[in-house]
Amino acid sequence: MDQLDEVLTCRLDLGKRLVEPCSIVIFGASGDLTARKLIPALYHLFVEKRLPLPFRIIGFARREKTDAGWREELKAALQQFSRTKKVDEAAWTEFARNLSYCQGDLEDPKAYVHLKHLLESFGVPELRNNLLFYLSISPTQFGDVVGRLSEARLLLRQQQPGGWQRVVVEKPFGQDLASAQRLNSELTQFALEKQIYRIDHYLGKETVQNILMFRFSNSIFEQLWNRQSVDHVQITVGEKLGVGARGGYYEEAGAIRDMLQNHLLQVLALVAMEPPVSLEAESVRDEKVKLLNAVRRWQPEQVAKNVVRGQYVAGTIGGQPCPAYRREPKVNPESNTETFVAMRLLVDNWRWAGVPFFLRTGKYLPLSASEVRIQFRPPPNVLFAAQCGPKLDANAITLRLQPNEGITLRFNGKVPGNNIQIRPVRMHFGYDTEFGAYTPEAYERLLLEAIAGDATLFIRRDEVEAAWGIVDPIRAGWANTPLTEREFYPAGTWGPAAAAELLASSDRAWRDPQPAT
Ligand code: BG6
Fold first, then answer.
1. Which of 152, 170, 188 finishes a domain?
2. Ligand 1 mean position to 388 CA, how many Å?
């Protein structure tokens, strides 16, 4: 950053609440998420001096382990998953002093007494009273655990002076609207809505947060962000990996519940929502909910026309053979679970009426890349457009969410020379070039926000329910019908042919994300 950039930078977090000393209790501490994401994120926050001091992290899980044994495991995981290799020995040793393991069964009340004693052994009052409970466990256990925490008076359903308790819950938040509502009622029996932090890790990504800055701190783009200028919007979240070892979970979820209900609809909400009245969590979330509520619910009989599902069969990616989904471990060999979904959504509000939003996501696609493409209307059919016809590319803004994070504006220009030739050119902003290669993990930001008590980047009760309201009728439209031949796609392609037809029927086409050049 040069001096002028430094001067021009607005620092919005100066007035933010400081993080207070607290204890973080992770339920499901033996799980993958703890080792891969949570501990590396907390370690990096510690190294960057963003964690409050003092702090404690307690891992709660069933397996017998000593503090030292758990720390060793986590150190090995950190060496593998840390975004900054190699782990700083001295920093780790200092960080690891704050880690304790609490062995216990989630269903055993005695385990919570044990946890309470452990917390009481911490001298500093904030470490006993400011508690962040992170539930990285099966959603079927959320209600039970929160109930037991309340019973042990570790979680109080009120704001107490001199202490706070918050519950962070991982996705999937329910299987459908009814189960999400049940879960919400269970949780809110023991905690106030403002004590519940529902995670969608996409909201912790820099580029996803930047959608609001891009839209509402610039005046030039927002003027175009409506049905007068936009022809349609494409949101693609592609993944080059298959389901791998997660077959058991994925069989129940499928692409629509694993990715679309949460990550893609969150991105859609940020791209399409109205400007909030303030940057307060509730204002931002109010607008997201309004947007999700404006999305037209497809009736089951409209699903076939507007939604495409797919499942991968054997193929290759980068020359490597990939197995069919039905051959993956823990997957039913006759499974009808979708590993790909594409859909047309309509947003019935003043700004977007008539503008289709095309969303797609899938496993074993050619590329791991996520993008939002705002495709503008073509120029009027006179002058250059009259001569070039549909070949004249319409303008587009692409928000590249990951990897090669950046924003590209595509417009037409004259090819230099004595001929008259026009072709699209690109104006590109790349995060790396502009800001250096600093991409903190989403979990770092989210953990910090939960500790600070800022819920902006978390999903509110009505938001999660609105999202299920969009997904449920689609699943009802599929009604457990078996996949047909045309719904399979070879691994390494952009989904079944029907996904292309979804756009082709209105003379549009997917613009596939491109690899970095
Ligand atoms: C998770 C899904 O929520 O998001 C996974 O359960 C998916 O199936 C992952 O792979 C994608 O996250 P990211 O950050 O790699 O895009």
1. 170
2. 41
